[in-house]
Fold each of these.
Amino acid sequence: MKKILLLCICAFSLAGCIQKAVHLARETPGMMDRGLIYKNAMDGDPEAQYNLGTNYCCGPGVLHETPQALYWWCQAGRQGQKDALYEIGTLFENTRRLVGSEIPVDPAKAYAYYSLAEKHHHKEAGVSRARLEKTLSPEDRDKADEIIRFWPNMECELPSTLPKPDPLWIPDEKRRSTI
């Protein structure tokens, strides 16, 4: 009897987790149809580019590829997507670090991208920028000011972060024709 009760409790708990995951996927654009988000990102949609970068950074499965996340956030950030600009800052500040990340810590770049996100009214960017401002050297401040002055014509990607067609993001019908 105790085993059955324990089994029922576990089943109900698991059902709650699954329900929450399904709700999150429905509420997050592009989470259910990876092919569509990839297509829209390639077509220049800044929200899709931000979502694609977020999926590379923090998404489901084995897609964790920080340079690709940076690439897509840069594309979205160039179009004024405030969340993408903020996430670029977190990568360079080392607050969103994945094991084996190829993104070098750079407080000047983090400060610059937080500043750009703040200009686009990101809620948390001002606090992050102010925190970093206290620690910047004069040289780092000059470097940050240069990035801000020349943005969006300033590169923020790493040289090795070229967009690459990932079969997981290609729409199902196209993937079937390439296999």
Amino acid sequence: MGNRAVLTTACGNAKHSDNLGVYLHWNGGRDSVEAFLAYCKLQDFRSPETDSYGWARLCQVVGNYFGGGTSVGVDVCHRLDCNNHDNGVYIVRDWEIVDRQYFSGFEQRQYDLHGMLTKINQCQPQKEQLEQSIIDGHCAHVKEIKPSLKETLKAGADKSKAVITVSAIKSQGEPIL
């Protein structure tokens, strides 16, 4: 038993692939996997589809988080437990989940991203930890809309139909729409 998952960049059927994969025995739910990937992206590690260094850094981050020696594995996908009856296989590009295989259950949403990133960071060697402000900025919830957009809405636009997508936060806290 566990909360298993496999992460890979393999296209097609991962269970038969010779592509490299990372096996997680614990914390394989989407919320944890997204946090591990986001942490690697915040660290500006090379993405795993580029070369094996990305996978190595992910394994380092996950291994530091778990401690011990039995929670993470690396192998070609056809030798990993892809059809694991837990979280299946996450297909990853540029530290983002882009597809999923062997999963038909409910997404785990037990951990909030900010809390997971903070815990992952605390488990890393001190000299390699991110500044907390980087994590806070990544997870910031936008409370204020750009003044120009607020004024547009006040001027008579139907607020019930306004959809605002924030793609990032500038260092000054201003959303990039």
